[in-house]
Amino acid sequence: MVLVLAAMGIHTLLTNPRFQFDVVGQYVFSGTIVKGALLTLELTVMAMAIGVVLGNVLAISRMSKNPVIAAASGLYIWFFRGTPVLVQLIFWYNLSAIFPQIGIGIPFGPQLFSGSANSIVTPLAAALLGLGLNEAAYMAEIVRAGIQSVDNGQTEAAHSLGLTHFQTLRKVVLPQAMKVIVPPTGNELISMLKSTSLVSVLAISELLYSAQVIYARTYQTIPLLIVASLWYLALTTVLSVAQYFLERRFGRAFRAASGRPRGFAPRGIHPRMKKGPVAPDAR
Amino acid sequence: MPDRVIVRSEQVRKSYGSVEVLRGIDLEVRDGEVLCIVGPSGSGKSTFLRCINHLEKVDSGELSVNGGLVGYRERGDKLYELRSRDIARARRDIGMVFQRFNLFGHMTVLQNIMLAPISVRGESRSAALEHARSLLDRVGLGNRGDAYPGQLSGGQQQRVAIARALAMRPSLMLFDEPTSALDPELVGEVLTVMRDLAGEGMTMVVVTHEMGFAREVADTVVFMDNGTVVESGSPGQVLLSPRNERTKAFLASVL
């Protein structure tokens, strides 16, 4: 059944001339498209960086003992997860409609710096703000889940040794939370790569917009969408492979640490484990 | 000053919601003293121990270590909780050993021991390493410094946890049922280390179910039940000729 459907799919790909694979071949490595793909990558990396850094801050704030800080973080996450990222993007793009002038200064005091919103929030800045701030809300939940996966006894032990709250997080809790944080973060990165196509509405010449610009001129819509899709596929494939190796690395570090191999790794793979008795259950 | 007071507890009370778990604990621990707290589970003995280094907050009463309040400062006749940084400072001199070891799973044995001396006391790496190695020798694990906690037996892990606490050169050691999570054949090695430590004059507060250890090593045994100190005195007095009916009933059930 699957084979028949697959055969039908391949057959139509090969025989339907309207896919225009000659046009695909003509554009796939053209300057405009390659530049667009590079910009897509840049946007992905930068927006993700904003998301990861801010997401950590939000996660830690969310678990703060100070109810005001915790609530502020919760409110942020609620708002940014509850509105479509496309709406957020357009909103940032049109920020000048609400605040024609933005600046940095002392509240109700003198301005240190100011300028027109249009010159500060360029389309690129609006894209990064929209994607990055939205991503931060999702990363916050991932990091929080990771932190909560670490046994509270670890925190108590670190506190009893005189480590401060922050030292405990950085040296004891977060390193052990990585095993839970890394896999979904890889998924977020891949999903971010695809989400960057949304910023085409801000006329930023990333991959999709570059393709759109060409087909608006030549009316070769389908072949150029195929070109864009091929690039997206290639980039996500690279990221998936990277994610696989990263997960394996963190997984292995954990297996060595716990002494109990998980998954299909045979026990004999870690020679160190042969020494000494096997740890009894701690409970 | 041979009998300087290290821990002083006056009318310490604590509740979880409407359940009062500590109902006015009075006791003193002097320099070099080994105090064992025994009693049925749910009697509040672990909670009291955790109050000493402020892992639990005290609701009322006064609890001081080395003459200073732990986690609070006094202004007028009110107590204010310290900022987390100052609480951390107060905890440096109090070592704690947990029932479930709580070794840091992502670090080797040596890294576990060196973490706090380096990042809290600001010791140099080489000094911390040297000290860590000598502590490992002391607990009989000199050759396991590069192992991860998960590769060690429970008894070995608990001995590492003791070494980790000692690395901060504490003036007081707290033990929260240190052998309760161990297989019976591994209990002895941990008790041996604790016995040696007591012999060297370390001030220790030990919550334990090991009556043999309490009888042999403790200077003072405290029997707690239902959030109060029912009876306290020398091991011979409390464990061998208890006066209180509740103490008698408890000892009859465990011995």
Structure write-up:
The complex is a heterodimer of chains A (283) and B (255). Chain A has 283 residues and is mostly helical. Chain A has helices spanning 2-15, 21-27, 31-62, 67-82, 85-93, 117-120, 123-148, 152-160, 165-195, 207-218, 221-258; strands at residues 101-105, 111-116. In chain A, strands 1-2 form a two-stranded antiparallel sheet. In chain A, α2 packs across α11 (221-258), α7 crosses α9 and α8 (152-160) runs antiparallel to α9. Mean pLDDT of chain A is 84; it is low at 256-283. Chain B contains 9 helices and 12 strands. Chain B has helices spanning 45-52, 84-91, 109-119, 125-138, 154-166, 184-199, 211-217, 235-240, 245-254, and strands spanning 5-16, 19-30, 34-38, 60-65, 68-69, 72-75, 78-81, 94-97, 172-176, 204-207, 220-225, 228-233. In chain B, the strands form 3 sheets. Chain B has a 6-stranded mixed β-sheet with strand order 8-9-10-3-11-12, with helices on both faces. Chain B has a 4-stranded antiparallel β-sheet with strand order 2-1-4-5, covered by helices on one side. In chain B, α3 (109-119) packs across α4. The model of chain B has no long low-confidence stretch (mean pLDDT 92). The A-B interface holds A 151, 153-154, 156-165, 167, 171-172, 175-176, 253-254, 256-260, 272-273, 275-280, 282-283 and B 53, 55, 84-85, 88-89, 91-92, 94-96, 98, 100-106, 115-116, 119-121, 144, 147-154, 156-157, 161, 164-165, 168, 174, 181-183, 186.
